[in-house]
């Protein structure tokens, strides 16, 4: 019985390992050897700029629209504030290195699970550099595999970074799209989750 259980555990582990590593194979990525040791996200990297977006956020049955502001305060230090158009705060988060702080959040969305999801999403938005684990190509796109907060991420570059996916068990769980890119400004950003009803649409207004 013990031998059977051990074989079952080993088989289960192998299947899980294969599933976790199959995203690149499912999408026909071709392994590449590049000199890139890190992947760079430039879109919220300028300390002299206030990044201001018109935002629409849908969380389950709640819909919020207003102004979404990202400010880089220093090295690995960002403040993210979402307000109504009248200026009333919906949430206010701070990121400093590996620390995260909720400065304010309205009661309707003040739930630990949701806050953790928003934390991961916005950490992905403002994280400027990550070490590259593997490099791939897909037609004219370079794809970099990396990890953020122990979650596998893939960064897609076609001249500029235009997509990030968070992957689990070989499947896309969250997709970040950077659109209407002008220099190092993504004038439109879309974040969508495959397993929960959460969508974030940002449109630059500055």
Written account of the structure:
- By secondary structure, the protein is of the alpha+beta class.
- It has one domain (22-204): outer membrane lipoprotein receptor (LolB), chain A.
- Helices cover 18% and strands 54% of the residues.
- The chain has three helices and 15 strands.
- The chain has a 13-stranded antiparallel sheet with strand order 1-9-10-11-12-13-14-15-3-4-5-6-7.
- Strand 13 (171-182) and strand 14 (185-193) form a beta hairpin.
- The chain is globular.
- The termini are far apart.
- 21% of the residues are buried.
- Mean pLDDT is 90; it is low at 13-20.
- Residues 1-24 form the signal peptide.
- Keywords: Signal.
- This is Lipoprotein.
- It comes from Flavivirga aquatica.
């Amino acid at each position: 019985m013990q031998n059977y259980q051990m074989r079952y555990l080993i088989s289960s582990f192998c299947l899980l390992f294969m599933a976790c590593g199959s995203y690149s194979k499912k999408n026909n990525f071709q392994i590449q050897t590049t000199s890139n040791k890190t992947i760079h996200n430039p879109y919220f990297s300028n300390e002299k700029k206030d990044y201001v977006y018109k935002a629409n956020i849908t969380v389950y049955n709640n819909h919020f629209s207003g102004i979404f502001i990202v400010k880089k305060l220093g090295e690995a230090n960002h403040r993210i504030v979402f307000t109504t158009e009248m200026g009333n705060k919906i949430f206010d988060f701070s990121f400093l290195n590996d620390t995260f702080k909720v400065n304010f959040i309205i009661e309707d969305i003040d739930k630990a699970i949701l806050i953790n999801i928003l934390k991961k999403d916005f950490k992905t938005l403002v994280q400027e550099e990550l070490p590259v684990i593997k490099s791939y190509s897909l037609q004219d796109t370079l794809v970099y595999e990396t990890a953020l907060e122990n979650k596998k991420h893939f960064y897609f570059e076609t001249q500029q970074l235009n997509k990030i996916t968070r992957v689990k068990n070989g499947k896309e769980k969250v997709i970040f799209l950077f659109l209407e890119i002008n220099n190092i400004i993504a004038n439109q950003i879309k974040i969508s989750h495959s397993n929960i009803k959460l969508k974030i649409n940002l449109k630059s207004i500055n």
